[in-house]
Amino acid sequence: MKNRLNINLNLGLVPVLILFFSYSSSVAQKVFSIEDAVTLGKGAVLAPKTLSGLSWIPGTHTHYHYAKQNDTSCIVFYDVDKRSADTLNLARINFALKQYNGMHRPTQPPLDDLKSVPWIQSWKNERLFRFQSGQVVFLYDIKGRQLSAEHGLEGGMENKLVHAETGHIAYTTGQNVFVKFVGAVPLQITFDSTEGIVNGTAVHRNEFGIQSGLFWSDEGRRLAYYRMDESMVTQYPVYDIDKMPAQGNFVRYPFAGATSHEVSVWVFDSKTQKKTKIKTEGPVEQYLTNISWDPSGKFIYIAVVNRAQDHMWLNKYDAETGDFIFTLFEEKHEKYVEPENPMFWVDDNSFIWQSERDGFNHLYHYSKDGILLKQLTSGNWLVSSLLGKDKKGKNLFFMATKQSPLNNNLYQVELKSGKITEITSESGVHTCRVSEDGTYVLDIYSNAGTPNIAQRISLKDGAKTILHKAANPLT
After folding, report:
1. What predicted TM-score, i.e. pTM, was given to this entire model?
2. b or e along 337-369 (b: 16 or more beta carbons within 10 Å of the residue's beta carbon)?
3. Which helix (H) or strand (E) holds 64?
4. What is the dihedral of CA 234, 240, 241, 243, to 10 degrees?
5. H or E element at residue 138
6. pLDDT in tens, 314-340
7. What does the radius of gyration of the chain's CA atoms come to, in whole angstroms?
8. C-alpha to C-alpha distance for 364 and 148, rounded to whole angstroms
């Protein structure tokens, strides 16, 4: 019995060993490294190919662009109505840069040729897009195929925020805020020199969705910025072990129960050159979060949260005087309140507020005076992002995990009825961009069986056009 068992076991190994050696032989054709698996960008071996920078051109409803970063590097501009594409190749951009070097920089070091088409930083209008080469911000006219310089930048500029329409740049250097208007020298806005005081940077340790400390009003006249005084906060050493010997860097950290930093919000008016402190009354250690402007640029809104983080007030202030006007509404919770998204305005001056008050992040429709009109979404799933509205402001578009916690799909909700329509049905993670009038969607998605697909979806009839389908890099 023992001998029979050994024979059976040995026979059972034969097909397994044949399969192993066959698999090893095929794998040996290409040995992958950890770098192959995790490297991003042009040199990535295992990253599926995609359409880089796929996005709509602002000011248009049916024009979008994307970049091809390969041997024929170019930017493609596509017109959905005409079903035609125009391309801007790398050679043409470099030729324009050479002309600029000859005409405008005869006494300065020439700008180097670009190795690939530039990343489009923003659009001034439907014809002009911005990109940076060296310390120069350029505008390129896609109709006239002409290049012009908008800004010469200074060294040490951090936290740059460009107002797309005017081209004004707000930025920080050291502890202070500066503004550079087109064709002018930089203008210093703040003049703090005390160690521990900073202006124009993210505050409250990047909680509550805070990622920036500079906020242009919609029309570009006013700039709101944070001022943070943490000079009273205890410093703690954090050691950099990459250096030999390890070196200690001191950081200020407000532990629970200890003294915290003090934050204020200021507004700079580019027309009057006046600075105004927003009068956020209350304890100095409260959190000032989710700064947003109304469409007119005359009023500023701040979600004020107490240090216990169980009470929030959405307050309205006069941007010219800094005066408190009124509280639109409050939120309370016995454990935690966490506003993470600023107000989103709808065309009738009502607005959308995102809240986790029922346990999941959902959309709430409010009047301009803070009266709740309707809870637009609900259920045991969350809204991951609010993308925008259609031309008439009757429908909103949002990404959500409604289908599954593993998926992120695009949905449409009608403001009046609250009716929700699923737009992307494929499982997986979708990244979507809706055109300004809400007629088309650009969608890139992937899942366990799909490396990468880019498609255009018509919201009128649901028709889908495949723009790109990536090959499986493991094939």
Report:
1. 0.88
2. bbbebbbbbbeeebbbbbbbeeebbbbbbbebe
3. strand 63-68
4. -140
5. strand 136-141
6. 999 999 999 999 999 999 999 999 999
7. 27
8. 44
